[in-house]
């Protein structure tokens, strides 16, 4: 069952599995058991009746027994290979025979053989069919009489049923007419009512459509008015913003004027204050002089000192406020000048960067043109070089192709010319020989040979094996000694290769008597049956050094038999067909 998890969770699980989580007690116990095992092994190493030494002696005895069994295996394998080689030859012959029988022409001959057998049985089948036809005619005559009798009864019954059905249908027809009249009147009334309702619906629909049209016109007018009002409002807002900006600018100008006026008033007030202070001093001095004159000089001096101190503090406070105001105005002026200078510097820097960037763009444009020209030049040179290499490669490939095509043409001419004609003629010889044997077998079994002769004639016409007609007299004088070749008969020097000998039953007990059903099932399927049932020839029995029972008694068949060093079995390889009468080289590419 699949589990969906994130990559981090999978990595955490993977790291957890890599950790060493073995219990140290288990490790210690395993090491102790290993120590006990090593100690026991060292102790029992020299004991004669120990399990290891007993197994060693048994292994030596087993190796000796295996060596004896290996010698027997070697002899058995040699005989096995010889038997396999003979079986391989039989299989190759059988394979060539199967390939030959699977071609179109042998299949045509086989169908002709089957046709001859069928034609022989056709007469007996015709007799049998005539008897069956007579029986069928008698049976058909009886069935026809029975059918005629039943047809008369069925006709009388149908006449009675038609009469009754006519009366019932007539009554039913009258009822249906009455019902149809009532239904037509009811439908007419319903149709008129429905028509009146439809007229009312149409009138109401027209009124609703008019109302909808009026509503749409009013809605469009209101929408236009709303859009116009929105545009007017946006214009008014724009004018208000503009007026507000102008008012803000005027307010700034007024503030500047007020600031200047306030500065002038402050200056005037300062001068007036200085004048008032000076007058006050004069007044105080006059008072002091008057008090000195009255004889209270000490007290007047003290008061004068306190007054001077207060005046001094007041003057210092006024001077501090004035200095603070001046510093504030100076700071405002300096900030304004600095902001203006910063703005001018930014503008200058921006213009400088703009001009610098423009100069760089112009320079880069010229540089890009130069680089592009160099690139086009290199591309043109590379193209010329590639064209030259491609021309050389084309010429080389052209020459290789011409050489290869010449070689393939020569091989094809040989393969499809001389070699193909020889193999085709060998196939024709084999087929014509096989057809002659089939004709002989058909004559022996008294089967009509017309089908076989027709198949042979079709094959000869298909592959043009009949001799050409004689040349006309105007051409015969130019071809003196010319004789057309007759290919419809096998060559005189052709001989069909003999089949391989049957297998020898050397390592098996006496074979039982053959089963007649098995013999019938194993009969040849090509229609070429033996002319006479001759008894099989006795094969020469070779002396067997050792049969299977002796081989089993030599050593137990436990799968431990081994060959001696240096003894190898030759590989069982499939030998290709070397006979010129077989066409398997054309398909499998054997040389």
Strand content: under 5%
> H/E element string?
HHHHHHHHHH
So what's the overall shape? elongated
Mean pLDDT: 77
Q: How many separate helices?
A: 10
SS-derived structural category: mainly alpha
In helices, the fraction of residues equals over 70%
What separation lies between the terminal Cα atoms? 58 Å
Largest sheet: none
DSSP E strands, number: 0
Write down the Rg: 67 Å
For this entry, give a set of tags.
591 residues
Architecture overview:
This protein is mostly helical and about 600 residues long. Among the domains are: about 80 residues; about 80 residues. The chain has ten helices and no strands. Helix 4 packs antiparallel against helix 5 and helix 4 crosses helix 6. The longest helix is centred in the middle third of the chain and has 191 residues. The protein is elongated. It starts with 6 loop residues before the first helix and ends with a helix. The C terminus is likely disordered. InterPro entries: CFAP210, TPH_dom. This is Trichohyalin-like. Keywords: Coiled coil.
């Amino acid at each position: 069952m699949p589990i969906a998890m994130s990559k981090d969770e999978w990595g955490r699980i993977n790291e957890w599995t890599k950790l060493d989580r073995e219990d140290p007690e288990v490790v210690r116990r395993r090491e102790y058991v290993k120590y006990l095992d090593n100690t026991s092994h060292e102790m029992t190493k020299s004991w004669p009746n120990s399990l290891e030494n007993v197994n060693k002696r048994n292994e030596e005895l087993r190796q000796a027994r295996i060596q004896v069994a290996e010698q027997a295996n070697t002899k058995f394998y040699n005989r096995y290979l010889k038997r396999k080689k003979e079986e391989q030859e039989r299989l190759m012959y059988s394979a060539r025979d199967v390939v030959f029988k699977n071609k179109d022409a042998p299949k045509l001959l086989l169908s002709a053989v089957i046709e001859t057998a069928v034609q022989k049985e056709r007469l007996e089948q015709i007799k049998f069919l005539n008897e069956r036809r007579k029986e069928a005619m008698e049976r058909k005559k009886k069935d026809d009489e029975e059918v005629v009798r039943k047809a008369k009864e069925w006709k009388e019954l149908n006449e009675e049923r038609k009469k009754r059905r006519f009366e019932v249908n007539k009554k039913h027809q009258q009822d249906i007419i009455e019902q149809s009249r009532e239904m037509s009147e009811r439908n007419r009334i319903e149709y008129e009512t429905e028509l009146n309702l439809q007229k009312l619906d149409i009138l109401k629909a027209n009124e609703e459509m008019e109302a909808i049209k009026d509503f749409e016109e009013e809605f469009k007018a209101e929408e236009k008015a709303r859009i116009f009002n929105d545009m007017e409002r946006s214009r008014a807002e724009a004018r208000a913003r503009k007026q507000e900006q102008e008012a803000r600018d005027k307010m700034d100008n007024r503030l500047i004027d007020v600031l200047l006026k306030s500065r002038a008033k402050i200056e005037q007030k300062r001068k007036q204050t200085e004048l008032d202070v000076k007058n006050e001093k004069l007044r105080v001095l006059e008072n002091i002089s008057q008090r000195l004159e009255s004889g209270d000089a000490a007290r007047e001096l003290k008061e004068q000192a306190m007054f001077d101190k207060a005046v001094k503090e007041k003057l210092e406070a006024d001077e501090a406020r004035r200095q603070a105001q001046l510093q504030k105005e100076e700071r405002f002026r300096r900030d304004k000048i600095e902001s203006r200078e910063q703005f001018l510097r930014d503008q200058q820097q921006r213009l400088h960067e703009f001009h610098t960037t423009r100069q760089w763009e112009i320079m880069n444009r010229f540089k890009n043109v130069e680089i592009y020209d160099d690139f086009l030049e290199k591309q043109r040179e590379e193209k010329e070089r590639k064209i030259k290499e491609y021309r050389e490669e084309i010429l080389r490939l052209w020459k290789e192709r011409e050489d290869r095509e010449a070689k393939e043409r020569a091989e094809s001419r040989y393969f499809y010319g001389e070699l193909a004609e020889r193999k085709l003629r060998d196939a024709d010889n084999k087929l014509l020989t096989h057809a002659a044997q089939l004709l002989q077998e058909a004559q022996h079994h008294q089967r009509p040979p017309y089908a076989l002769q027709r198949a042979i004639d079709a094959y000869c016409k298909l592959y043009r094996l009949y001799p050409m007609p004689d040349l006309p007299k105007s051409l015969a004088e130019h071809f003196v000694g010319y004789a057309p070749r007759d290919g419809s008969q096998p060559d005189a020097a052709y001989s069909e290769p003999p089949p391989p000998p049957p297998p020898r039953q050397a390592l098996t007990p006496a074979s039982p008597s053959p089963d007649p059903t098995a013999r019938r099932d194993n009969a040849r399927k090509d229609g070429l049956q033996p002319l006479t049932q001759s008894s099989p020839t006795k094969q020469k029995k070779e002396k067997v050094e050792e049969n299977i029972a002796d081989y089993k008694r030599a050593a137990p068949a436990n799968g431990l038999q081994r060959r001696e060093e240096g003894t190898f079995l030759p590989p069982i390889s499939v030998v290709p067909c070397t006979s010129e009468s077989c066409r398997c080289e054309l398909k499998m590419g054997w040389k």
